[in-house]
C-alpha cells in the first residue's frame, strides 16, 4: 500500500485520481477505487498506539478494544471510498473536536506532554483536511454527497432493549434530509442475521452528537452525514472474540443498505434522477480478485465431473448385460483420477479469499471453494459404496414434491401429434446441429461419440457438442436439443471463456440445477418441448428414487420396464445414468431445475444466467457484476421467455400444475 503525506493525498484527490494509501505514518487509510457521491468512514476502527504512548497507557488491550469499534472497516470494505482510522481513539478521538480529542485522562498513568498532544492533534487535523478535500471534490462533481459515519456500541450492560442499528439524527437537518434518514432506517431493517432479530431505529441509544458530522455541517452545505451505531452482535464485546458468520452476513447486509440509501439520496438530490445502487459501486475488477480467480482456475480446471463419472466401457457392458437378459449387473470401468485430493483441498483452503473486499463477491468465491471441496470427495469415491452418499451431499435427492411432480407427468394422457417417431440418425443430427451453430455464430464442432450415455452432450473442455452415435431423433428433438445444448450449454461455455473471471467456467454453486433448468426452459421457449420429453425428465426422477431405494442395477432396470413401461433400451440408459459411479443422483435436477426456472422467469429476466456456468444462488451478485461491468453482459441467441400459443396450451397447463 502507498505511504502518502496529507498534501500528497489531497493533491491526488484534487486531480480525481484513485488510490489506496496510508496517510501520516499510517494514522488513517484512504481507499478510493472510484469517485462516487458517497463516503464511508470507520474512524474508531483502529487500535494502534505509537511507541512513546504504550508504556504510559494504564488500560489493557482488552479494555481499549472494549471502547473502540473493531471490524467496522470490514463492514465497509465493499464500498469505493472508505476512510479508516488506524490509531486508537484513546490517543486522539476523531469524533471529538481537535482540542478535546486527547482528553482521555483516565487512560494515562501520567499526563501527556505538550509534544505528545501536538503530535496527536496534528494527525487529527490531517484526517479532517483529507476528508474536507474529498467532500469538496464530491460536491463539485456530484452537486450533493453523503457520508456514512459507522461506529459500533456495547450493549450487554444496557438494560433496555437496544436496536441492532441506531441512526443518530440530532445534528441532521430533518426538514431537508429526513426522507433519506427514513429510507436508510428502512433498508437497515431488511438486513437478516443468523439467529438474531434485527431492528433499526433512530436516536434510541445515541443521538449522533459526534464531531465528524459537526465538522462536515460547519464546512459544507450539500453533504449529509448519517451517523450509524451498530450493536456488537458480531463479537463478544468483553473478550473481543469475533463471530465470523455474523460479520459476513452483516457485511453483505450493510453493503445493500448503504448502497440503496446512497442511490435514493442521489435520485432526490443529485444531478441524475435514475441512479441505481450498482451505479455507485466500483466498476473495476481489483487485482486481488483477478489474482485469486486465476489461482482457483489453475487449481480446479481439471475437476470435471462427467469426465470421470461416465464409464469408459458403456458399449461393451451394455452388450453383455442385454445378452444375459439383465441377470448380472454391468461392471463399469472409469477414467483414473489424476488429482491428489489431499493436496487439492489443502491448496483450495489456502486461497486468500479474505483479500476480496466486496462482501458479496467474497461470498461467491467461498461458495465455489466449499462446493469444490465436496466435489473432490465425490470424484475420489467413484466406483465405491461411498459415492452415492457423496452424490447426495453434492446434488441432493428428490423429495416428495419432486416425486409427485414426476408421477403427475407420467400419468398425463398422450397429446395428439406428440408421438412422432425418431427417424433421424446421429449423422443427420450432426449436420443439423452444426447448421444451428453456424447460423447462431457459435464457433464449435459437432461430432459423434461412443462414450456418452445421453443423446447429446456439450464437452466444455473441448468446446464441442458430442452426439451419441446410436441416438435417433425426432424432428422436434432436433430443434429442442439445438436450443438446449447449443443455445444454453454451448453458449454459456463460450460466454464463460470470454469473461475475465474464470470462475464462470469452473461453475458456481448449483450450476447443474440452474443450467439444466434453463436448458429445458429453452426447449419450452422454442415451442418444441413435448410431453414425451417431460416424461423422460420425470422418469429420471423416478430412476434416481428407485436407485436410492433398491441399490440394485438389475432390479431398477426391471422395475422401469415392468412398472413404468420403458423399453429395454430406455431402461438400460436410465439405469446406467443413475448407477454410474456407484449411484449418481444428478438426474432428478433436470425437472426440479426446469420448475424453478419457470417460476423464476415470471418475476426475473434470465439473461444473466447465460454469463457462464451460473447458479440461482449467486444470481443476484452475478447480475450486479454484469451491471457494474465486471462481467460481460450475455446476449441470448433467442428470447428466453416462453410465449403461449394454441399449440402449447396442453403443455402449458401441465407445466403450470407442477408444484
Structure description:
- This protein has helices at 6-15, 51-54, 61-67, 72-75, 114-142, 174-189, 211-219, 244-269, 287-300, 305-309, 314-323, 341-348, 359-380, 387-395, 400-411, 426-440, 475-498, 503-506, 511-526, 531-550, 553-562, 568-579, 589-601, 619-627, 649-656, and strands spanning 2-4, 19-23, 28-32, 38-42, 81-85, 145-153, 165-167, 200-202, 223-231, 445-449, 456-459, 464-468.
- The chain has 659 residues and is an alpha/beta fold.
- Strands 1-2-3-5-4-6-9-7-8 form a 9-stranded mixed β-sheet, sandwiched between helices. It has a 3-stranded mixed β-sheet with strand order 10-12-11, covered by helices on one side.
- Helix 6 packs antiparallel against helix 8, helix 13 runs antiparallel to helix 14 and helix 15 (400-411) crosses helix 20 (531-550).
- The longest helix has 29 residues, at 114-142.
- The radius of gyration is 30 Å and the shape is elongated.
